[in-house]
Amino acid sequence: MSDLHTEDLNIPSDTAGIALHLRHKRRTDIQTFGPQRTILLMHGATLPSESLFDVPVGDGSFMDSLAQDGFDVYALNVRGFGGSTRPGGMEGAPEDAPPQVRTETAVRDLGTAVDYILTKHTLPRLCLIGMSWGGTVTGSYTAAHNDKVEKLTLIAPQWINDGVSRLDPGGPVHAYRRFDVQAFRHRWLEGVPEHKRDWLLPAGWFEQWAAVILASDPSAQDGIIRAPAGVIQDVREYWSAGKALYEPENITVPVLLLHAEWDLDVTLNQMANLFPRFRNAPYRRWTEIGEGTHMVVMEQNRWQVLKNIKAFLATP
User: Fold this and answer.
1) Measured between alpha carbons, how far is 142 from 144 in angstroms, rounded to an integer?
2) Which of 3, 57, 63, 11 is nearest to 39 (CA)?
3) 255 pairs with which residues across the strands?
4) Angle ∠(89,19,233) on CA atoms, nearest 5
5) Is the pLDDT at 316 greater than 90, yes or no?
6) Which residues have C-beta within 8 Å of that of residue 240, sequence separation ≥ 6?
7) Region 46-71: what's the mean pLDDT?
8) In Å, how far are 58, 184, 287, 290, 294 from 301, measured between CA atoms?
9) Would the pLDDT of 173 be above 90?
10) What pLDDT digit, counting tens, does each position of 185-230 carry?
11) Residue 170: Cβ within 10 Å count
């Protein structure tokens, strides 16, 4: 195992008073990385990047594995998540402001992070990896900025559904949602056969994850964190209304699509409808991972996700 350099950066967004948190990891014995070796990770609708990509369980975190294999790895929190600034609408009661951090805003924040990394390392392009809502954000960005993206990986990305989304609880959409960290364990494992649950999420892993996510929100109380609700409004106006938020046909870089069989949030049928629409990518792959949920990057079989990503990024 090589020594890893880790740093937490706060970079200015395009909005006064809003800073964006970037976590950065790389091996200390490698100083220069090209476009195929530079990665920016984008989180989903509820959980900040560190709770998906940098929880130290098993042989190390998701970011650790990529960094150990010689990648220069960044993970972004868009505004409202993790160490990034909460917009003013998240400081009062949820009912006091409209839905915060719509996808359009997250795409702008991703663009800010991309430009920061490319400028810092004098690179023309980098690789994007987005999970769930992060797939919408990275897909939208890539469709508009193919020239800045080397390759695109989408893990269980949002897509047009049958009119119902597990992410949308119904009722009014306020500024943010109150997310009960401990209660999430049931939802996480809901689609998993009973005899597989302890294997899929080994002892101590959930507790490690819970500690990381609770530490991500300075206002966390009684096991509750805040999650911006702008994504819920976008789900209603686009995915659940039968409309695409971006056009996959506009993506002209290689695409890897990853999905796990026990994912109740993004269905196999959604992936089957999405995959053919990357028809203008130079090449595209779709890998279906057995025995995994929507949270596969934090589970026993995440090695399959990592193996597929590393092979994809190594392909000329």
Assistant:
1) 5
2) 63
3) 152, 284
4) 40
5) no
6) 161, 163, 164, 165, 168
7) 96
8) 11, 19, 13, 8, 12
9) yes
10) 999 999 999 999 999 999 999 999 999 999 999 888 899 999 999 9
11) 8
